[in-house]
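Quick log. Single chain, no ligands specified.
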Amino acid sequence: MVCIVDYGMGNIRSVLLAFEKAGADPIVSNDPEIIASSQAIVLPGVGAFGDAMRNLKALGLVDVLKECVTVKEKPFLGICLGMQLLASVGYEHGEHEGLGIIEGEVTRLDGGNGLRIPHVGWNDVKVDSTRVPYDGFSDQPNFYFVHSFRLVPKSPDVVTGTCDYGSEFVVSVAQKNIVAVQFHPEKSQKTGLKVLENFLAFSKQPACSSTC
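-> predicted structure:
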C-alpha cells in the first residue's frame, strides 16, 4: 500500500492520478496510523518550507515520518517540497528546522545569468542510471520544475541527479530506503511516469542496507 501524505501543501490529486497511471492503488491520508501501516510513503508538496513544517507538526506527522523512514526504513519518495523537507534546516522566509533525515540545508536557487526565479518549466537532468529512480534511463531526461529553493546535501554520496539553471544544483537524492526528486514526476509525462514506476518497483524490494 502506497500512502500519499496529505498535509495541506499542494498537488495531491495530480500525484494520486499519476501513481494510479503507474499501476499503483494509492491512498491519501494524514492519519498517523494509516501512514505507519503503509508499505511505502510519498511526501509531495508545493509551497513554503516553514508552512509545511508547521502543518506536519500540527497534524502530528513529524515523529511518525521519522519513525517510518529512519527506523522502520519504509520506502519513501519525496517530491519537490517533500524532498526539501528532508533537510536539517531550510532558509525560506527565515530559518526553519526540517525533518533532519538527509543532512543538509535548503537555500534559494541561484539562477545566475539573469535567469528568472522561480525556475518554472522543462529542463534536462544529468542522472546516475545506476541509482534509484533512474533505472533504465539514458542520456539526459527532461523533467518539469516549479521551485525557487533547492536542497544542498552535506554528502555528495546521496546525489543521483543534477541540473544546470545558470548554475548547477541537486535535483535528486537517494539514501538506503529514501528517494527524493526536486522536479514534478506527475507533471513530467513519460519520463515522470517512469520515475514513479521505478519507485514502485524499488518499494517491493528488500530494504537496502547501504546507499542505493
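The CA atoms of residues 176 and 208 lie 5 Å apart.
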